[in-house]
Each structure stands twice: as C-alpha cells, then as structure tokens.
Specification:
Blueprint (H helix, E strand, L loop, with lengths): L1 H15 L15 H8 L9 E7 L5 E5 L11 H12 L7 E7 L2 E6 L7 H12 L4 E2 L3 E4 L40 E9 L2 E8 L6 E4 L2 E2 L6 E4 L5 E5 L1 E2 L4 E7 L3 H15 L3 E2 L3 E3 L7 E7 L3 H10 L3 H15 L7 H14 L23 H11 L5 H7 L8 H4 L15 E8 L2 E9 L5 E9 L6 H13 L9 H7 L11
Parallel strand pairs: 4-6, 5-15, 6-16, 9-12, 10-13
Antiparallel strand pairs: 1-2, 1-20, 3-4, 3-17, 7-8, 7-14, 11-12, 18-19, 19-20
Organism: Actinoplanes flavus
Family: Belongs to the peptidase S13 family.
Protein name: D-alanyl-D-alanine carboxypeptidase/D-alanyl-D-alanine-endopeptidase
C-alpha cells in the first residue's frame, strides 16, 4: 500500500508540476516533503518569508518552497563572493606586501593581504634589517591598490566599532591567527579589589582606551569605539581571575599597520627618522623585502569557516583591481566583476543584487535557486576541493573544521555530514551547502528565512537534520554513482 501511495503521489506531482515527495526515515507514510513542511510550519515562523531549494546530485528538484523569491542572504553572500573570487582571481592568487626605499624614505605598499599578523610584520622587518638599518626620511604608507572608501555605504553606524564591521584597506593587519582584519583585541582580566586590567593587541596609538569596567561576577565586558573617533570605552563586569577578549575596529587600518611595522623595525634595530605619511610608492623605489601570502585556496578556510567579513570585502576590491588594473580596487568594480563571474557559472544574475561581499548590506538580494545553482556548478570546477574543504562542518568540535557550525547539530544525523555556510543578521537566518544522506546520496540545499520574530537558526538545523536522515525513493537509483560521475566526493552509506 505504501509503495502504491508513493507512486500515486509522484504521478500527481508530475501533473501539477510540483516536486514529488522523497521518502525519508521515520516510519510508514512519512516523506521528506512532509517532514520539511512540518518543520517550516512551526508557529515561530508565522509571518516569516521562507525560501528553500533542495537538489540531488544531478540537479533534479527534491524539495522547494519559494525557490525564486528574492531574500536577504546575510553571510550566505560569502558563498557568492568565494566562488566569484576563485573564478576571477584564481585559487592560486597571492597577496603581496612590499617594502621599498627611495632616497631616505621607506615605503610600505599593501595589496590587500588579510593575513598580516604581528609575527608576519616582524619577519618583514627582519628582512629589511638585513639590507639596511637607517632611513633618514619618512615611513610612507601606500594603500593605493584599493580606493579609500573604508566602509560599506549602507552599513549601520551603530556597528562601526565592532570587529566584524572593520574598515577595508589595501594595507591592513590581522589581530590574531584567525585573521580578524582591521581590528584590535581588547584583552581584559578581572582582579580582586581593583578594576580589571585592560590591554590592546597589537599595541597601537590608533585607539585610546577608557577603562570603566569593574571586577564583579560573570563576564559582561564590552568595548565600543565612538563613531568617527578613536576613544574606546570598556564597560561591564568580569569575575576575579577571569579573562577574555573582544574586538574593536580601528579608524584607519593602514595607519595602524604602519605603526605595527614601525615597532617591528625598532625591534630589529632599524631606525626611520621621519614621521609616518601616506602616499604612493614611486616607480623608482628599490625593493628591499616582500611578503607573499598563502594562496587564496588556503585563505578560503578562515574566510568561510569563521565567516570573516573583512576578508570578503578585500576579495571584492581585489576582484575590482584584477578586472580594471589601471584603477584602484573598489566595491563597484569588484561587485561588477563578481556578478559577471557568477553569470558564467550559470547563476541567473537578473534577479541578483550584490551590495557587498560579506552579507552586511541589506541591498544583497538572492534566491534559494541561485544558491543551489552556484553550489551545483561549483562541483564541476577545478577549485571545488578547496571550496568544499572551507565550508563549516556540522558538529565538528575543532573550530578549524566546524567553524560557525562547531556547536550546531551535534549528536544528530547531520553531524559530520553537512558542510554549509551559515548566515545571521537581525531578522535573517540562512544555511546553504551540501549534505550526505543516510544512504550516501549527496544533496545540495539552500534554506533562508527572513523576518522571523525569533532566531530561526534552530529551524534551519532541523531542516539539515531531516535532509541528512532521508533516504532515496523506493527502487530509485543510488545517487552515489551519479555524484561520483560529476566529480564529487561522496561519503559511504552510514552504518547505524
């Protein structure tokens, strides 16, 4: 009877032009379609806009709800940026930072490297020290590889001080090995009987800290930089002996980077007598040292695993520079280059609006179908292994593997079998990527929810778990062979 019921449902679906139900685990009469419908009918989603598209390895529809509706993607925008950057720049693209000398001046020229930590500036300074120890002139900061529009035109002012909304510059710095760019770490520690200690890393004069935090209970410390200024006010409470870190953006990453470099020069016995100024490096300047970043295929991991907005916007401006080499990289030229690349990947760009590369902008509009089209096309590209490896893995405890999904879907069928990009913005939740089902099939999915009154992340996790628990239709062809034929890596069927 069940088989007859499924066959009748399939015939009706074909006649009506809707996706046929796909069988899922969970008992007789239950289907994946029914399971997903029930998840998306939960009361907390009343009035929300829901867009879902699920495809099998061959691109056939498994489940859909409003797949052509344009919605805000939040950080799912980074899927578009990553794929476009791999197309425009190439997986082997490396960022260069060069130190040159001209007369008595020392020039520091950046080309957008988001991985310049204090240690890497130190190695660059050591290389300079091997060539020359005294410069009678100035330290000249050259950030002309990109334009000097530091912030997205429609980013919220109230977010300006946070590390995830840091200014974008061709010469920047990373505060840590996770490559948080354009922001400093405010490090604090509770001390009994007195105010918590507060330090800034890397040390810089770019910000001035006012410490109003108290030693008390828990950890509620926050740090906010005044709009347009450099004063950072630290407030809240922290228990004695407890420590923590929060990120604060700096007003001008290039100036802060120059300060980090100047300090490194001093450690290696190099003197630059003059002050720090900004200007282009002359063509006659002599190269003293060069720092070359890891290739883009490796930078993708921290970018997508940790959802770094700064790296996203640097990639956009780098694409703009690559598309129009005679002009500084910018958001307009970079987003145009990205849109063209996505079109070549088969994405219908007529319905696509890109306001930035990270998803902070509320001028980003995308459909679930565009995302699954991109994710399907990516599997046929030579750079796909790097793209896939950079996606967060559900439930993986190691943050370098699980990323933003490290603490999600643990202990479920999705753990270790969902690789997907998260997206979170006020009123927006998204989750899109790949899932290996219980019987080893590979599915591509995009699920986006706008306007839910409460965070919809748990709902999206339920969607991913339902996909991971599903099995193919009775008598259907195993899609493991289909996926392998398309060059995908498919997990073996699970043993329960």
């Amino acid at each position: 009877m069940r088989r007859a019921h499924v066959l009748v449902a399939a015939v009706v679906a074909v006649l009506l032009g809707v996706p046929a139900p796909v069988a899922a685990s969970g008992g007789p009469g239950r289907t994946l379609t029914g399971a997903l419908d029930r998840i998306l009918a939960r009361p907390e989603l009343a009035g929300a806009t829901i867009a879902v598209d699920v495809r099998d390895a061959a691109g056939a529809v498994v489940y859909q709800r409003n797949p052509g509706l344009r919605v805000l993607p939040a950080s799912n925008q980074k899927l578009l940026t990553a794929a476009a950057a791999l197309e425009v720049l190439g997986p082997g693209h490396r960022f260069r930072t060069t130190v040159r000398a001209c007369g008595g001046d020392l020039h520091l020229r950046g080309e957008g490297d988001p991985t310049l930590t204090v240690a890497r500036f130190d190695r660059l300074a050591a290389a300079v020290a091997q060539r020359r120890k005294l410069f009678s002139g100035r330290l000249v900061v050259d950030d002309t590889w990109f334009d000097r529009v530091p912030l997205g035109l429609d980013w919220s002012w109230e977010d300006e001080s946070f590390g995830y909304t840091a200014a974008v510059s061709a010469l920047t710095f990373a505060a840590n090995d996770r490559f948080d760019t354009g922001a400093v770490e405010i490090r604090y520690r509770g001390a009994a009987g007195r105010r918590p200690s507060v330090t800034v890393w890397p040390p810089t004069r770019s910000v001035r800290v006012v410490n109003r935090a108290v030693t008390g209970r828990g950890d509620s410390v926050s740090a906010v930089r005044a709009h347009g200024g450099r004063t950072v006010t630290v407030t809240g409470s922290v228990a004695p002996g407890r420590s923590g870190t929060t990120l604060v953006s700096v007003p001008d990453p290039a100036v802060t980077a120059a300060g980090v470099f100047r300090a490194a020069l001093r450690r290696h016995g190099v003197t630059v007598a003059g002050r720090t100024v900004r200007g282009p490096s002359p063509g006659t300047a002599r190269a003293l040292a060069t720092r070359v970043s890891a290739p883009l295929r490796e930078i993708l991991r921290p970018f997508l695993k940790f959802s770094h907005n700064g790296i996203a916007e640097i990639l956009v401006k780098a694409m703009g520079r690559a598309a129009t080499p005679a002009r500084p990289g910018s958001w307009p030229t970079g987003l145009a280059a990205a849109t063209a690349a996505l079109g070549r990947l088969g994405v219908d760009t007529r319905l696509l609006t890109m306001g930035d590369g990270s998803g902070l902008s509320r001028r980003n509009w995308v459909t679930a179908r565009q995302l699954t089209t991109l994710l399907t096309a990516a599997r046929r590209r030579p750079w796909f292994p790097a793209f896939r490896a950079a996606l967060p893995v559900a439930g993986a405890a190691d943050p370098l593997v699980g990323g933003t999904l490290s603490h999600r879907m643990r202990g479920t069928a999705a753990a270790g079998h969902v690789r997907a990009k998260t997206g979170t913005l006020t009123g927006v939740n998204a989750l899109s990527g790949y899932v290996t089902t219980r019987d080893g099939r590979l599915l591509t999915f995009a699920a986006l929810i706008n306007g839910a009154l409460a965070g919809a992340g748990p709902t999206l996790d339920r969607v991913a778990v339902a996909l991971a628990e599903s099995t193919g239709p009775p008598g259907g062809q195993s899609s493991g062979r289909k996926a392998a034929a398309m060059g995908a890596t498919v997990s073996q069927p699970r043993v329960r």
